[in-house]
Amino acid sequence: MRNVLGIILGGGRGTRLHPLTQLRAKPAVPLAGKYRLIDIPVSNCLNSAIQKIYVLTQFNSASLNRHVSRTYQISPFSEGFVEILAAQQTPEHSNWFQGTADAVRQYLTPILETNVDTFLILSGDHLYRMDYRPFIEHHRKTGADITLSVLPIGYKNASDFGLVKIDDKGGVIEFSEKPKGDALKAMEVDTQILGLEAEKAKNMPFIASMGIYVFTREALSELLTENQSEQDFGKEIIPGATDHMDVQAFLFKGYWEDIGTIEAFYEANLALTKYPNPPFSFYDEYAPIYTHQRFLPPSKIQNSDIKEAMISEGCIIEKAVIQNSILGIRSRIESGCNIQDSLIMGSDYYQTLEDKGLASSDQPMIGIGENSVIKRAIIDKNARIGKNVKLINKKNIQEANEPIPGVYINAGIIIVTKNSTLPDNTVI
């Protein structure tokens, strides 16, 4: 894998994950209590012996830059690196990234200077574990110009993905980005060609691109330089390439989830609490997910009732009920709290006992105050939730932008934004 360069696309505004992307880039959004979204593709690369990695960013990239620089320090005795390439102005390109392909195009010169022959293009908002080596070996064995990683899907979310049709040898003969209506119907195929049983193929009649591509050096250079107006891989580059290049499909058989929306992000996180067989597990010693080492103390839990939960390092929990929830690093849960079906992202720092003595109803401590009830919610980092607060969405509101400052509701999920404060007795 020395001749492979990983390119992780993380430059979008992340509007589907707003307000979690209000103050940070999408790849920097916390995941599973202690990780960041960017840790997934970077770890997959490292576990696949790919040690040359660029991360392309554009919006709110400060925390992402900090996380990558602190976490991924490849040995100086190797050729490896994990580096951020942020949007910049140059004599050739005065605009920000206009799309996924344009992001790579604007950095094509340093990318080609890495002197590799294979480019692995990845997204920064997917949850999956994949060894890229069989994928790349398939690409090289078939002699393809481009290879897409694909999987069968059903009707529910089909219009959210790029869909492909393939021939009996796995060659892509048609690609349609997020089709709807008649265009979606036209992309139906018999997925038994992928080895699915007849009944399963009936329920999953589409082949979706995972947004993971392998390009040869020549194909990437040609496609990005010949037509400067094509800005996006899924919408323009890949569909156009099927006419004159060898585009192959590679079937992925593992768990994969696009967590680019609030609802998908929330559901994928809480699914991690299931035992003994969650759909995705971080407990794989042979393919671990890496993240920043924080050297935090063990969590302290006193007189609490905890069921189906993940508790990160450095938490303090007193006389609380916690069910089907995730507590991020340094979470502080005071006595009498009831937390259900929620994701508490924790905090970036501890407050001292002196701070606790100075806390007031207007400026409570970071964490969840006494006797508060939180259900079906995402509490972002450093949020201050006062005493007797009830976040239960009693009226079952599905969408709302700041009914009170710092609070949003998306798909019925209450979201308290980073650094926000909810005074004592707040009810939503």
What do you see in this structure?
The protein is an alpha/beta fold and 428 residues long. It has 11 helices and 29 strands. It folds into 2 domains: 4-271, Alpha-Beta Complex (Spore Coat Polysaccharide Biosynthesis Protein SpsA, Chain A), CATH 3.90.550; 300-422, UDP N-Acetylglucosamine Acyltransferase, domain 1 (3 Solenoid), CATH 2.160.10. Strand 9 (162-166) and strand 10 (172-177) form a beta hairpin. The longest helix is centred in the N-terminal third of the chain and has 11 residues, at 132-142. The radius of gyration is 23 Å and the shape is globular. The N and C termini lie far apart (52 Å). The relative contact order is 0.12.
Protein structure class? alpha/beta
Task: State the CATH topology of the largest domain.
Answer: Spore Coat Polysaccharide Biosynthesis Protein SpsA, Chain A
List how many beta strands DSSP finds. 29
- CATH H-level superfamily of the largest domain: Spore Coat Polysaccharide Biosynthesis Protein SpsA, Chain A
CATH class of the largest domain: Alpha Beta
3D shape: globular
Number of helices: 11
Beta-sheet strand percentage? 25-35%
What is the second-level CATH architecture of the largest domain?
Alpha-Beta Complex
List the uncertain runs: none
The total domain count is 2
Mean of pLDDT: 92
